[in-house]
Amino acid sequence: MTAESPENVLFVVMDTVRKDHLTPYGYDRPTTPGLDRFADEATVFEQAVAPAPWTLPVHASLFTGMYPSQHGADQENPYLEGATTLAETLSAAGYDTACYSSNAWITPYTHLTDGFAEQDNFFEVMPGEFLSGPLAKAWKTMNDSDALRTLADKLVSLGNTAHEYLAGGEGADSKTPAVIDQTIDFVDDSEEFFAFVNLMDAHLPYHPPEEYKERFAPGVDSTEVCQNSKEYNAGAYEIGDDEWEDIRGLYDAEIAHIDDQLTRLFDHLKETGRWDDTMVVVCADHGELHGEHGLYGHEFCLYDPLINVPLMVKHPDLGADRRDDQVELVDLYHTVLDSLGVEGGEPASPGDDAVALDRTRSLLSADYREFARAANDDPGQRRNGEYAFVEYSRPVVELKQLEEKAASAGIELPEDSRFYSRMRAARRVDAKYVRIDRVPDEAYRIDADPDETENVADSDDEAVAETEAALAEFEDAIGGAWTDALDTDVSDDSVDQMDDETQDRLRDLGYLE
User: Fold this and answer.
1) What is the pTM of this model?
2) CB-based contact 188:272 (threshold 8 Å)
3) What confidence category does residue 171 fall into, taking pLDDT thresholds of 50, 70 and 90?
4) Which residues of 371-380 are buried (b: 16+ CB within 10 A; e: fewer)?
5) Contact residues for 463 (Cβ-Cβ < 8 A; gap 6+)
6) Looking at residue 141, what is its pLDDT?
7) Residues whose CB falls within 8 Å of the CB of residue 391, separated by 6 or more in sequence, listed in order
8) What pLDDT is recorded for position 161?
């Protein structure tokens, strides 16, 4: 940290936003003029890599400085347990902390919000009597029972579709202005703050406000296009070129709404004199596929549109710049600590794992990614920092829905497929290697083949071989490679053990027929 380091941090995650749909990254549609102006005074990172392709493990990594295998928060265990969070550390250091989100995974129930003194999230927009009634009863029953806890992820996720309606009936964007309003109120009442914001507009389903829809998807009825990625991925629904164009238009409209709301927040910080004294981080937790590789959404793969995410950071030590070196979102944990001059590493609760500041992972440090000087026992600190690592455990909830869509269309999903696979990847700026436990590994020379169309895992390419070796080292450090394929059975046999009230609640939310 320098003597001129900002006293505050605003950390924004644009959920499910692809890098190549943003104006600062060369998109030819004016989706984000506000972020384009922001980029004029920030560092824009071209090669930022997420540690997973979906929300829960990525945010757990942002909040702990750990890879998914270390913190353990995933769909098969949708809770962050035994780890001290960034918010807990900063709250203990005297900072005002707040988390405002319209994402159903970022809640007290998953423990991702542990340590935030102020918070508003998906569950809090639901009726209070519902929280104190069936849902609370179901949640306690599930978490107190080893047999039922495997179903608790259904209640934490609730389904993003259910979120759209229970949170206001107009889509995630209906809550975004309120999230920004809350952030503004929090900032105005704080002296030194860490504010975290997640905006869900660009997550399926896409139902943007009319103003933005008419700009980017004129004449498109959002209820008439395919908004169910599992239906497409299962092979139960075909999407033609015109429908993909409509889907992308709706997606762009959602991003444009995010941009306008962020601009409103940024303008307020400037008008109230807080801008210059605030480090601002803007990133996505993961991207989205719109038909590439025959997939829709952000499940079942580790292709670059999902894991090579946008990242822009405004800080006086970075200045206005564009960088082509590879960075990891895991590094942002250390960057925030470094900017605020907090060392961390003190467990918030006895027995917690707590990651201390390691300046070889801080974007602000002259020693950034000089891992020979690393202070932590970090499995990702390999080979002078040129590699990023990504982990993807089996997506239980999505897989169950996929199976249901396939079965309803008379389709049998092959057991040896990417749908049932766990994956790990090592990536550097020119090459990627993906280890997959049920189907052949994948590797790509992403410098020559950025669309990842030619699998060169079996080639004698030197860059690919080096990347595979780095992945093997990471796997060894993290506890071993995923080579033992998990059972394909993801049926909910323990549903029968639940009481009628709990089953009715899951049925209302779309998880039971």
Assistant:
1) 0.89
2) yes
3) low
4) beebebebbb
5) 428, 430, 431, 445
6) 54
7) 51, 52, 57, 67, 68, 69, 423, 424
8) 41
